[in-house]
């Protein structure tokens, strides 16, 4: 005989269930009312504790090596403006006038050291989640060529070593160079190109090619390093050897460079702000071990000077200066440099570079990183009035 539940027992059970649901709903409503007030009264860390293990603190601590440089300084400003906490790794002797002042909140701080000094670099790595290794010795010629290896190769070696000793680092962005891929005489290069290593125009090129292999080998071993390859970087900012377009425009508009130099489609020109955004996009979307060319418009220095002439309504250069004359000037400049201690604008290795083409496509970065480089015309339209405002050129 089947047991039948009494009506009053069924009603009691239903009533209890409804009451229980009501209590849960009331508690949830009360919780939702209390939480916003609590969060508004407490610091951000309390909110993170409330959410628990699922909470992610979006204010990542980022270390930028070479922060006093043309690219590194611009990167620091952009990262800070985007809400990151930034450590700028600089030498005691570096010109840091272009960097923002350190903040009391610690959102921007200076970390002193040198990439060739492992202990100072390891200390700077502390508490950082992302490393932007932009530090490099960028010159076509210096009296002591061994410094290229110690800074550009040894510096990356120390970065990789410090990563292994630091538990917090999640990703390393390594600023390589188009030189690491080699010249592209007669074709447009991409990320699959490998330097032949048979000949190097400059010691800088050699050091970046060696460091590039080191970065890729590290990625193959599981290090989360993403190498990016800027072209010839230009734009407003520092007028140094890292901003060669600015230096040559100053020479051109001060009548010290009457003609033009180099090959057709000799270089891939990229604006510094585009390269900065490319670095940040590679941090967000780039895959370890994948190469990303952050280049731009492929053009010659004649194209640069012609565009500058159109923008400023001045005369275009009418002739190509023979490389043999540039080379003779380069040797003379090196002799003068050894006496004065001032590095030359033109040197024999520079002439070797000008004998080749260095043209690359950035289609991969456009597709995978949403990289969007501006045209040479756009970049120069911004840059020329800036040089004029500094009193460096007249037109």
TrEMBL record:
<dbReference type="InterPro" id="IPR001509">
    <property type="entry name" value="Epimerase_deHydtase"/>
</dbReference>
<dbReference type="InterPro" id="IPR051783">
    <property type="entry name" value="NAD(P)-dependent_oxidoreduct"/>
</dbReference>
<dbReference type="Pfam" id="PF01370">
    <property type="entry name" value="Epimerase"/>
</dbReference>
<feature type="domain" description="NAD-dependent epimerase/dehydratase">
    <location>
        <begin position="62"/>
        <end position="292"/>
    </location>
</feature>
<protein>
    <recommendedName>
        <fullName>NAD-dependent epimerase/dehydratase domain-containing protein</fullName>
    </recommendedName>
</protein>
<dbReference type="InterPro" id="IPR036291">
    <property type="entry name" value="NAD(P)-bd_dom_sf"/>
</dbReference>
